[in-house]
């Protein structure tokens, strides 16, 4: 089996060395770029399987790098942001940026490895299952495509999987823990706010198409439900 290739874009050499040492032990192959511009160049040339992207970088910051990666290649490559700023979570996971996940510094290598594995564990079509229609919404898992009132919704893979999970069980409460486990992976350590941010993004995208409908119901402190 070929090793999974990870591109790490990080300007602090000691963090790079720590990550490289530990991820190589896990069998990953690591390429390093020390600024945003170089990182983007290497990304386009080498097409890594996953990107670890620091937020604060010289030349071009992590948000801009992420945006450009998405503009070039869509959402097929998982991008995990490394950040010291938890106040940036909304933006990081947001519409324009489209990172799959974030991890706040300082983090443990164990946590980082778990996040990487969870991000690489794409939901397979047989897991996400069959095509689903709920009212004016149609989801096709094999294409990660969603149409709503005949309009295409541009969803990230995580947003798609989360919406699919809700629609699969209309009327049933999906707790935020359920969602983390099913969409982000079983050993995901993340906080449940990740789910809230993704739900907000999905709602915004659906509201652009149909402002008066809110088919996703919030159950305060518990989770979400597709009004079935
Ligand atoms: Ca930095």
Write a brief structural summary:
The protein has 228 residues and is of the alpha/beta class. Helix content is 41%, strand content 21%. A 5-stranded parallel β-sheet has the order 2-1-3-4-5, with helices on both faces.
Descriptive keywords:
228 residues; alpha/beta; Rossmann fold; Arc Repressor Mutant, subunit A; 5-stranded parallel β-sheet; 4-stranded antiparallel β-sheet; 41% helix; binds calcium ion
What percentage of residues falls in helices of 4 or more residues?
40-55%
Whole-number radius of gyration? 18 Å
Which fold name corresponds to the CATH topology of the largest domain? Rossmann fold
Number of domains: 2
Major sheet details = 5 strands, parallel
* CATH superfamily (homologous) name of the largest domain: Response regulator
Oligomer: single chain
Say which molecules are bound, naming each kind only once.
Answer: calcium ion
CATH architecture of the largest domain: 3-Layer(aba) Sandwich
Mean pLDDT: 86
Basic shape: elongated
Low confidence ranges: none
Determine the number of helices (DSSP H or I, runs of at least 4 residues): 9
CATH class of the largest domain: Alpha Beta
Q: Provide the succession of SSEs.
A: EHEHEHEHEHHEEEEHEHHEE
Number of strands: 12
Walk across the major sheet and give the strand order.
Answer: 2-1-3-4-5
Task: Tell me about this structure.
With 228 residues, the chain is α/β, with parallel strands linked by helices. The chain folds into 2 domains: 5-121, Response regulator (Rossmann fold, 3-Layer(aba) Sandwich), CATH 3.40.50.2300; 132-226, Orthogonal Bundle (Arc Repressor Mutant, subunit A), CATH 1.10.10.10. Helices cover 41% and strands 21% of the residues. It contains 9 helices and 12 strands. The chain has helices spanning 13-25, 36-46, 62-73, 89-92, 109-120, 125-128, 157-168, 176-184, 193-209; strands spanning 5-9, 29-33, 50-54, 79-83, 101-104, 132-134, 137-140, 145-148, 151-153, 173-175, 216-219, 223-226. The strands form 3 sheets. The chain has a 5-stranded parallel β-sheet, sandwiched between helices. Strands 6-7-8-9 form a 4-stranded antiparallel β-sheet, covered by helices on one side. Helix 2 packs parallel to helix 3 (62-73). The longest helix is centred in the C-terminal third of the chain and has 17 residues, at 193-209. It is elongated. It starts with a strand and ends with a strand. The mean pLDDT is 86. Calcium ion binds next to loops.
């Amino acid at each position: 089996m070929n090793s999974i290739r990870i591109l790490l874009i990080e300007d602090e050499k000691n963090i790079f060395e720590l990550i490289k040492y530990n991820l190589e032990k896990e069998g990953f192959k690591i390429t390093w770029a020390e600024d945003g511009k170089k990182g983007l160049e290497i990304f386009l040339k080498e097409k890594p399987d996953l990107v670890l992207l620091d937020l604060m970088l010289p030349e071009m910051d992590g948000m801009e790098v992420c945006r450009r990666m998405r503009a070039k290649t869509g959402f097929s490559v998982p991008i995990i942001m490394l950040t010291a700023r938890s106040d940036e979570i909304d933006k990081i996971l947001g519409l324009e940026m489209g990172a799959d996940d974030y991890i706040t510094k300082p983090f443990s290598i164990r946590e980082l490895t778990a996040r990487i594995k969870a991000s690489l564990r794409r939901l397979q079509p047989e897991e996400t299952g069959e095509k689903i229609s709920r009212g004016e919404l149609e989801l096709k898992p094999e294409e990660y495509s969603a149409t709503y009132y005949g309009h295409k919704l541009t969803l990230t893979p995580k947003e798609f999987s989360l919406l699919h999970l809700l629609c699969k069980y209309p009327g049933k409460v999906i707790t935020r823990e359920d969602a983390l486990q099913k969409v982000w992976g079983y050993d995901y350590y993340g906080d449940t706010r990740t789910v809230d941010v993704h739900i907000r993004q999905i709602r915004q995208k659906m509201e652009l198409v149909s402002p008066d409908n809110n088919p996703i119901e919030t159950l305060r402190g518990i989770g979400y439900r597709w009004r079935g």
